[in-house]
Design brief:
By secondary structure, the chain is of the alpha/beta class. Helix content is 33%, strand content 23%. It has eight helices and nine strands.
């Protein structure tokens, strides 16, 4: 494990206390949470009856939404003990078919061909230092003709400043840089890995997947709580993307 990975895990250990401290708020949200309309449009025909694995599951709200959409079961994986324990408590309280394991990808510890769908995103790929290893593990977890789906921040997002008056590119960031220090959440020195869109797509293909869907969206899925609006969110720039691939 490199220094950046050590610092990132330490930062998440601090930040993930949020899931315990704000348990009541997350529980209330989980009672009505749904996937984004763009996700439902792609996954609606796939989730029903599926056994799902969710690497880097975080607070686990998407797992509840997947179960509500028809997933037979959802197995969340996260390297934060606080995230795993609070998500399990919430799922149990709501009677949802979700279980959680503390694990750091790509060493999931799960059996071969244990899932019909691997779902991840919304702030996951930016913490993956080795894309080929990640996609290889996803491929191993899926059954024949299984599906991998990701809904994620667009790789250009780190470049957008959050100025309200006009769109600006941050002078301290570059699209082709390998990483940058996170200055929003979780902060505390966490290092985000930067992967271009072509790197993500090609790593997926090289792992043995067939790309069935790729789309880009102007709406961000996450906005810092202290900001009401930013020019980068006015519909002219890409702020998210989704990818659906089948295990070949």
């Amino acid at each position: 494990m490199d220094v950046a990975e050590d610092e990132t895990r330490a930062a998440w250990a601090i930040a993930s206390r949020k899931y315990e401290n704000e348990y009541a708020e997350h529980l209330a949200e989980a009672r009505t949470v749904e996937l984004l309309p763009a996700e439902v449009a792609v996954l609606g025909r796939i989730v029903d009856g599926a056994e799902v694995v969710h690497p880097m599951s975080g607070h686990g709200l998407d797992d509840v939404a997947l179960a509500r959409l028809g997933a037979r079961s959802v197995h969340g994986l996260d390297y934060s003990e606080a995230a795993v324990s609070s998500a399990q408590r919430r799922a149990d309280e709501l009677g949802m078919p979700c279980r959680y394991t503390q694990a750091a990808m790509p060493e999931s510890g799960l059996d071969d061909a244990c899932a019909d769908l691997v779902y991840t995103g919304k702030g996951a790929l930016i913490w993956v230092p080795d894309l080929p290893a990640f996609f290889a593990e996803v491929h191993r977890l899926l059954r024949a003709d299984g599906w991998f789906y990701v809904y994620e921040a667009h790789p250009l997002v780190p470049l957008w400043a959050w100025d309200a008056d006009e769109i600006r590119v941050r002078p301290d960031r570059g699209y082709f840089e390998p990483s940058h220090v996170n200055d929003s959440f979780p902060g505390n020195g966490a290092v985000e890995r930067q992967h271009t869109l072509s790197e993500i797509v090609m790593a997926c293909r090289r792992a043995g997947f067939e790309i069935e869907h790729l789309d880009e969206y102007p709406e961000p899925f996450w906005r810092p709580g202290h900001l009401d609006a930013a020019a980068a969110w006015d519909g002219r720039l890409p702020n998210a993307f989704s990818l659906l691939a089948r295990r070949a």
